Amino acid sequence: MTISAHKVSYHARGGDAVTGLDEAALLANAEIIKAARSVGDADVYRVELPDSKPLLVKSYRHRPLLIRWLFARRCLRNEYRKLAFLRELGIVRVPQPIALLDKDTLVIEFLADAVPLSATQRLGRQPSKAFFTKLKDIITELHRRGFAHGDFRSTNVMVTHDGQPCLIDFATAVCRNQGSPCVEKFLFPFFRRTDLFATAKVIAKFYPDMLSEQEIKRLASPPWYLRLGRFLRKNVYRRYIKQSSEG
Fold first, then answer.
1. Cα–Cα distance measured from residue 37 to residue 246, given in angstroms and rounded to the nearest whole number
2. Torsion of CA 40, 236, 183, 153, to 10 degrees
3. What is the CATH classification number for the domain harbouring 232?
4. Residue 242: how many CB atoms within 10 A of its CB?
5. What are the residue ranges of helices labelled H in 109-173?
6. Which residues contact residue 217 at a Cβ distance below 8 angstroms, ignoring those fewer than 6 apart?
7. Rounded to an integer, what distance in angstroms lies between the CA atom of residue 173 and that of residue 155?
8. Contacts 24+ apart (CB under 8 A), 180-186
9. Which domain holds residue 192?
């Protein structure tokens, strides 16, 4: 796909960064929709270009070099590749990956016809039970195909105007397929359990009566690594890292 802006063309090429492009021109009239809240977050923009669908741009260009080198660039590359994989798989709608402009900036499709699941109750657009049944089926099928999201939550589920589910934010997703990195194969069962726990948690917020006995037991006993992560976020990240970055 080629998108023209200020006489600059942006091309998606495999999973490698596209060099020699004018990122400043792309962001000149961009609207920031989510400013980074911590040193590890990306700035997220919506970009409107002539003769093009809206784009979403994730950029770590203003984060410290160490953060970009340690994980931010890996997350952007991983999300680009996982989106391309899921688009080809065709199980669930996801944003179209457009380009890696450079090592620190990813451009994807902006889902203009969808809203976050987390906002539907406030907007008076709560999905039906059929939506969540389909969502569970999607997660089950992705797992069967050797794919785990790893960061499943209501803010990463989108609801289209006609009530269909979409998934976003695949920075930490993993595959357990032939040719996948060994670390992803190792992480898959952990991320799969995380997805199952998170799916039950999301459904419980909307339709608790939909939960099976197995899902109720799952919610009562979160995986140990999720409990550890919650402890670290509360007692280390929020108390020291986030405060120091905001200060």
1. 8
2. -70
3. 1.10.510.10
4. 17
5. 129-144
6. none
7. 16
8. 180/146
9. 114-246
The model carries a pTM of 0.85
- CA dist 20 and 177 (Å) reads 33
The one-letter amino acid at 60:
Y
Convert the pLDDT of each residue in 145-193 to its tens digit.
Answer: 999 999 999 999 999 999 999 999 999 999 998 889 999 999 999 999 9
Whether residue 47 contacts residue 29, with contact meaning beta carbons closer than 8 Å, is answered with yes
Whether residues 31 and 133 fall in one domain: no
Whether the Cβ atoms of residue 114 and residue 34 lie closer than 8 Å to each other: no
Task: Let me know: does 58 contact 42? Beta carbons within 8 Å.
Answer: yes
- In single-letter form, the type of residue at position 155 comes to T
- Domain boundary, last residue among 109, 140, 173: 109
In terms of DSSP bridges, do strands 31-34 and 147-148 run parallel, antiparallel, or are they unpaired?
unpaired
Whether residue 150 sits in one domain with residue 54: no
Paired sense of beta strands 157-160 and 105-109, if any: unpaired
